């Protein structure tokens, strides 16, 4: 098993433990210590992500000396990489843009819906429809990315 995959559960457990510890520190009126813990852990995660990126970018492709199957797989993966790479990049941009747009839309519509429901609780259904429409933006981006990946 790849050591990167083996370390993922450890990273997940550490993330949960450090986040809970930072929240506990913030609730005990030690906000600075909690923010420092979160920022430090985020810096460590960012450093690990950058190290993984550098390792992936510096990876050497497989050679024909290892049975030929790996070389065939690499050749098949890189065949026509111009169009498939552009399609994958477009899919990533579609998902990222639509998710960010949906997050902004849900933030504004959700807060407005809660404010309206605090004055008139009977408009819950109509307010949730508006929030659901805002979340539909992310689904549209996901559909576009599936179409782009299918054509890659």
What can you see in these coordinates?
By secondary structure, the chain is an all-alpha fold. The chain has helices spanning 3-27, 31-57, 69-78, 81-119, 124-151. The longest helix has 39 residues, at 81-119. The protein starts with a helix and ends with a helix.
Task: Give me the secondary-structure topology.
Blueprint (H helix, E strand, L loop, with lengths): L2 H25 L3 H27 L11 H10 L2 H39 L4 H28 L1
Helix pairs in contact: 1-2, 4-5
Largest sheet: none
Relative strand content: under 5%
| Secondary structure: helix percent | over 70%
Whole-number average pLDDT? 78
Order of helices and strands: HHHHH
Number of strands: 0
The helix-and-strand class reads mainly alpha
Which of globular, elongated, flat, extended, rod-shaped describes the shape?
flat
DSSP helical segment count: 5
**Computed Rg:** 23 Å
First and last CA, distance: 29 Å
Uncertain runs are none
At a glance:
The protein is mainly alpha-helical and 152 residues long.
Provide key terms for this protein:
mainly alpha, flat
